[in-house]
Amino acid sequence: MNGHDFQLTKDGNGLMFTYDVHILKVDDFHLGVKGEKGVIGTAVQEITPTGEVVFEWRSWDHLPLSLWESEGRHPEIWDLLHSNAIVEAHNGHILLSMRKMSQIAKIDRDSGEVLWRLGGKGGNFRILNDTRGYFIGQHDVRDLGKPEGKQQISIFDNGVIAADGKARRGSRGAEYDLHFDSHGRPLNARLVNSYDTGILAYAKGSYRRMPNGNGVYCLGVGVKQPRVWTANPFYIEKDSSGRELVRMEWDLHVYRHFLEIYRAIKAPWIGTPAWPPTALLDDNNKAKTLRLHFSWNGATRLQRWRIVTGDSAKEPLTFVYAEVEKRQFKHWVNIQEGMEKCRYFQAIALDDEGEELSRSPVVKTTPCM
After folding, report:
1. 314: containing domain
2. What is the pLDDT of residues 254-279, one digit of tens each?
3. Average pLDDT, consecutive stretches of 10 residues, N- to C-terminus, the chain (369 residues)
4. Which PANTHER family is this protein grouped with (predicted)?
5. What's residue 150's pLDDT?
6. Could you tell me if residue 301 is inside a domain?
7. What is the 3-state secondary structure (H, E, C) of the chain?
8. Residue 164 has what pLDDT?
9. Pair (14, 150) in one structural domain
């Protein structure tokens, strides 16, 4: 399996692709090279949860001109497509991003026919309204559906593919409306949104447009000189006017061997731990004051704490001892008279509406023992 991408279809099947390597005698291809070469194509598979292959597509069968159209012919091995993203389109077909072709292909889910190709050599669309004229070495193709009846896709345009890392432009997020004639044949691809980052991502990277119009970017890795990569910001969020809202990057004084991030995705996520909150009584502090410490690791809906107490361990404890707004991972409150009297305590986690999420186990002061 090629580790660039794996997607689940609406039916719950897995979409993936693999390297499809052939050893070819290239003398007769009129490419100025002789002898044998290892040449990499792409094999796409759709696999059910039980492991049954229900669809298979090979670039060798459907993209015969890739030998001449690719920018991936290196001295060691020819990586013709360098596929790096796959997604199920809104109408059930498949979109495949091919970096070394600087091209997106749409594949018929039933027949395997290449319905159209966007960008690169041999592309079927005329690109309009794009001052750059084309995209290069892209990643992270996404199908945006048909807003207002127009088929729309987004990509992360790296703007570079040359082996020496030299580029004439920075990286950007780009969205295209695709236009077809009355027979469904491709005509034009009009750039409708372009979000420039001002940073060059030599490899990797992603772009997603959020429902509020903001753009989220991962800038992959940069390049200082040929074959020497450097860290780029792994998360940037900009609003629709291009104003930067958030930037996250590695502190290279700490992470000397920087971590490479392929994509960054902002999405709703709720963490509800399988375990209850933790509560602990302790006087290990300079003042030797009895304190109740409480936390709930991983709970994203937690907004407030309610501390309840009673003179027996019988639940539920109901007397409210304190309420604390969640501001950090772990909180604590001082327990008055806890050294002399038997008291039982419990920490209750509350959401933003004051509804109870969970309770810690009951803990007791030393005189109760």
Report:
1. 278-368
2. 555 657 789 999 988 999 999 999 99
3. 92 96 84 85 97 97 89 84 96 96 96 97 96 94 84 94 59 95 94 91 94 94 71 92 92 65 92 97 89 97 97 90 97 85 96 98 92
4. ASST-DOMAIN-CONTAINING PROTEIN (PTHR35340:SF5), PQQ ENZYME REPEAT PROTEIN-RELATED (PTHR35340)
5. 77
6. yes
7. CCCCCCEECCCCCEEEEEEEEEEEECHHHCCCCCCEEEEEEEEEEEECCCCCEEEEEEHHHHCCCHHHHCCCECCCCEECCCEEEEEECCCCCEEEEEHHHCEEEEECCCCCCEEEEECCCCCCCEEECCCCCCCCCCEEEEECCCHHHCEEEEEEECCCCCCCCCCCCCCEEEEEEEEECCCCCEEEEEEEEEEECCCCCCECCEEEECCCCCEEEECCEEEEECCEEEECCCEEEECCCCCEEEEECCCCCCCCCCCCCCCCCCCCCCCCCCCCCEEEEECCCCCCCCEEEEECCCCCCCCEEEEEEECCCCCCCCEEEEEEECCCCEEEEECCCCCCCCCEEEEEEECCCCCEEEECCCEECHHHC
8. 47
9. yes
CATH of the domain at 135: 2.130.10
Number of domains in the chain: 2
- What is the distance between the alpha carbons of residues 179 and 116, in angstroms, rounded to a whole number? 12
In this structure, are 243 and 284 located in the same domain? no
Residue with tokens 């060798």: 60
**233 and 300 share a domain?**
no
Q: Domain boundary residue among 226, 248, 270?
A: 248
At 20, which amino acid appears?
D
Q: Answer yes or no: do 231 and 125 share one domain.
A: yes
**Are residues 180 and 219 both part of a single domain?**
yes
Q: Which two tokens stand for residue 86?
A: 């796959």
Is residue 55 assigned to a domain? yes
For residue 163, the model assigns a pLDDT of 47
